[in-house]
Every structure is written in C-alpha cells, then in structure tokens.
Amino acid sequence: MQQLAIQDVDQLQKLLIAPPVMPWRDFASWICMSEDLVEHWVKRGYLPTVRIGRYRMVNVALLVQQLLNTESEV
User: Fold this and answer.
1) What is the DSSP letter of 5?
2) What secondary structure letter does DSSP report for 57?
C-alpha cells in the first residue's frame, strides 16, 4: 500500500473540509491558480457560480459533483 506524503495529507484535508461555496478569489488561492485565470473561468462560465448579495461565489459542491459525474462517464 502506498503511503501519502505529508503534503498530500494536507491537500486531502483541504478537500474534505471544503465549504459548499467560496469567493472566487479564495477559490483561486485554494487551488493554487492565479486570480486572473479563475476570474476568466468564472466569466466564461467554466465554473459553477452563485451570486450571494454582491459577491460572486464558486459553487464548490456543484463543481465536485460535476467532476465526479464526468469521471464516472469516462
């Protein structure tokens, strides 16, 4: 059985405690991508988002569900 590195465990814990929605800038930091790139994804509709008040939030729960469904279809 393969052992997880400490960094992998930290990343796994981040995934397990992911909130259902988060601001797109926080999402960019969370996935270690530039804010410019994630903003582009949001504007193009590549990421599921929801507007809460004046804030645009990435719907992390829906994104994970979509990714799991896509993975099972392959």
Assistant:
1) P
2) E
CA distance 31 to 38: 10
41 Cβ contact list (under 8 Å, min separation 6): 47
- Quote the pTM value: 0.71
Domain coordinates in residue numbering, the chain: 19-73
Is the pLDDT confidence value at 2 over 90? no
Task: Band the pLDDT of 14: cuts 50, 70, 90.
Answer: low
Q: DSSP 3-state helix, strand, coil percentages of the chain (rounded to 5)?
A: 55, 15, 25
